[in-house]
Amino acid sequence: MTEINKVIFANHDDVDSASIECYIKNGGYSAWKKIVATAELAKTRESIINQVKASGLRGRGGAGFPTGLKWSFMPNTGNQQYIVCNSDESEPGTCHDREILQRNPHALIEGMAIAGFAINATVGYNYVRGEFIEDCYPQIEKALKEAYEYGFLGKNILDSVISFDLYNYLGAGAYICGEETGLLESLEGKQGKPRFKPPFPANYGLYGAPTTVNNTQTLATIPKIMTNGPEWYSSMGTKQSPGTIIFSVSGHIKKPGNYELPLGISFSDLIKISGGVIDDKNIKAVIPGGSSTKVLPADVILKCNMDYESLEQAGSSLGTGAVVVMAEGTCMVEILKRISRFYYAESCGQCTPCREGTGWLYRILDRITNGQGNETDINLLLDIANRIEGNTICAFGDASAWPVQSFLHHFFDEFEYMIKNKGKSKAA
Amino acid sequence: MENTLPKNITETIDQWMSKFPQGKQRSAIIAALHAVQKHNDGFLTNNLMDQVAEYINVPKMNIYEVATFYSMFQTQPVGRHEIAVCNNISCMLRGSNEIIDHLEKKLNIRIGQSTSDGNIFLKKEEECLAACTGAPMMMVDHVYIENLTIEKVDQTLERLKK
Fold first, then answer.
1. Residues of A in contact with B43 (CB under 8 A)
2. Strand runs (DSSP E) across A349-407, as ranges?
3. In angstroms, rounded to a whole number, what is the distance separating the alpha carbons of residues B46 and B50?
4. Cα dihedral sign for B112, A88, B26, B19?
5. How do residues A38-72 score in pLDDT, each as one tens digit?
6. Cα B157 to Cα B148: distance, rounded to the nearest angstrom
7. Are B133 and A291 a contacting pair at CB < 8 A?
8. DSSP code, position A19
9. Distance between CA A282 and CA A270 in Å, rounded?
10. What is the rounded CA–CA span in Å between residue A183 and residue A195?
11. A242 pairs with which residues across the strands?
C-alpha cells in the first residue's frame, strides 16, 4: 500500500502536533538552527535555493511553478524585501491548508523563516483568510508567540546576525485575494484587485518592494526538505512531479479527508484510500484540482495518475489537489450553475470580460435549469467563455471559463436534454 | 468629530499598526474593521467607519471601499449571530441545499435576511469555506460546525436562542 502522511502530516497522529514541543521533539527547527549558525551567509543562501531546486518542489497553490526557481528571481537590493505566505485558502474543494494551520503551524513558521533568509527577506506576512478568524487564527497566533519565545524569530536569532520577523494577517472574505497580486493589494489595506504583470512581485511586490508569495503547503514542506535532503523528497512521486501533495478528497466519497500522498498515485488508489464512492455507486465525473480545473468524466479520470503531467495530458490539471468526486445521478447542469454562480459573485470587477461575462454565464445556466433555456444557449455559453479566457488581468477569468468549456465538452447531452425538456434533468 | 472608539478597540488597532512599516498604517484597515464590527454586534455604520478613518489617519474613502469589497463586512444592520452555510460544490453534493431550506423555514426568513427579533443573520455565503472534507458545514459566529445534520442545525438554533 502507498505510504501516507510522510512530510507535513508526519506527526498527525499526535494529539499535540500543533505545539512547539511536539514539533521540536520530531526534529522541528533543527534546519533553521543550522542555518542561523552559519558564518557564510551568501553561500548558505545559494545552497538552500539549490536544494529546493533539486527537490523538484513545485508550488502547491495551484499553478505548480517550481519553488526554487521562483526564489532565485529575488534580487538582493539591500532594502526591505518580503516573504508572504498565501493562506487565503478558498479554491472550492480545497481544505488542506486549514489542516496545516491547525495541526502543524510550526512547519509553516520554520518554512517561512528559511524562505525569508534564502530570498533576503527579513520580514514575512502570513495572509490568512478572514473566515478563519475564530477557527484556526488563534492557534497560529499562539504558535507564532511560541516561536518568538523560543528565540527562533526576531532580531539576532539565537545570537546570530540573522533577523526575521513574522506576522499573521487576516483577510475579510474575497476569493480573488488568493491571486498573489490581489493578495498583496489586500495586505496593503486595499480592495484585493489583481495587478498587471509584469512587473512580477519579485521586482515590485508588497509596498513596491521585492516579494515572493508562496502557498502554505509549499512553505510547510521546506523544513523537511532541508532536514532530510532533496533526494529524500524527490525519491517520492514521479520524475516530473517529485514529492508529495495533500489531496483534499470530497463529494460523494465514503471517507472524505486530506491525504498526503506521493504524486503520481493512481486515481483508483486515491479513491480506495478515501473509502470508495458513497453507496458503492459508479463515479460519473471528477473535478481533479479545485473548481477552476476542468472536469473529467469517469472513463478518463479512472485511467489517470494524480500528477501534473498525467492530468494535463488528460485535459485538466492538478490545481490544488482538491478532488471533488461526483457519483452517477449527479446533474452536471446544476453543478456547473453552482460553479458559475461562484465566479459571478467573486469576480473583482476590474476587467469587463470577466465582470460582465461571469454574470451572463450564470444567468443563462439559471434559465436553463428553470426550464427557459433556448437552443442557442449552448453556443452562447461557449462563446462567452471563450471570450473571457485569456482576456483578463489575472487567471480568474480563465478559471471561470474552463468549467463551462469542460462541462459542455464532456456532458453536452445533459445540457441539450434539459433545454429540450424545459428544465428536466437527464441525470435524475 | 469626536472619537468615541473604546480603548480596547484602539489598542487592537495600535497593535495591528505596529505590524507594518512606518507610513503603511493603511494595512491595518481590515483588522480595524473586524474589531469595530465585532464590537458593534456584527455590522458597520458610517460613523464607525469615519472614526476608523480618523484614527488610522487615512481618507474615509479608503475605509468605505474596503468595507464594501469584502464579504465579511456588513454595512447594513444585521442580526447579532451570523450563520453562514457553505453551499459550494462539495457541500452541495452532500446536502447543503436541504440545510439552507431547513434554516429558511425554521427561522422564517430568506437567505441574506435577519430574524425580526434581530437575533440571527442568515448570511448569503458565496465562497467555499475550506471545510470540504467535513461537508456539509456552516459557520456560526465564525465557529466551524462540520458534518451537519438537521439535528445539529436545530441544536445550534436552540443554543442561539439563549
1. none
2. none
3. 6
4. positive
5. 989 999 999 999 999 999 999 999 999 999 999 99
6. 13
7. no
8. S
9. 15
10. 10
11. A237
